[in-house]
């Protein structure tokens, strides 16, 4: 059974930092590309950051230079370090991967940035 469990969300003031974690099980983590998405109220879910199995990363323009995605294959965990947070970063953040012919999603973790 594939499980993705996010943690690390919370309430933070603008300019602050948070680190999200996503622990994966039921997949061969080291071969999977991993993604972070977010969805703000009334908006579509958007891709925030991706990391390949080789460690190559990609970011949405809105978070470049502020967010860093990383992975620890020994812990089956992917991280999203978020710095210089802005109120427009407020959203539910989801961990995502493609495994066994299907998109897999975590339950999401709420990030709220106050101005």
Would you give an account of this structure?
- This protein has strands at residues 3-7, 10-13, 18-25, 34-39, 46-51, 57-59, 67-72, 77-82, 91-99, 102-105, 109-114.
- The radius of gyration is 13 Å and the shape is globular.
- It is mostly beta strands.
- The mean pLDDT is 96.
- The strands form 2 sheets. Strands 2, 4, 5, 6, 9, 10 and 11 form a 7-stranded mixed β-sheet that branches. A 4-stranded antiparallel β-sheet has the order 1-3-8-7, with no helix packed on it.
Task: Detail the topology: elements first, then pairings.
Blueprint: E1 3-7, E2 10-13, E3 18-25, E4 34-39, E5 46-51, E6 57-59, E7 67-72, E8 77-82, E9 91-99, E10 102-105, E11 109-114
Parallel strand pairs: 2-11
Antiparallel strand pairs: 1-3, 3-8, 4-5, 4-9, 5-6, 7-8, 9-10, 9-11
Name the descriptors:
single chain; globular; 115 residues; mainly beta; 7-stranded mixed sheet; 4-stranded antiparallel sheet
């Amino acid at each position: 059974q594939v499980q993705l469990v996010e943690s690390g969300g919370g309430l933070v003031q603008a300019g602050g930092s948070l680190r999200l974690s996503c622990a994966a099980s039921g997949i061969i983590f080291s071969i999977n590309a991993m993604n972070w998405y977010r969805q703000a109220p009334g908006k579509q879910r958007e891709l925030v950051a991706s990391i390949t199995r080789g460690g190559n990363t990609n970011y949405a323009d809105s978070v470049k230079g502020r967010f860093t995605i990383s992975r620890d294959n020994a812990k089956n965990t992917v991280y999203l370090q978020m710095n210089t947070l802005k109120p427009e970063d407020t959203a539910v953040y989801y961990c995502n991967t493609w495994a066994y012919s299907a998109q897999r999603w975590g339950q999401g973790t709420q990030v709220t940035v106050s101005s």
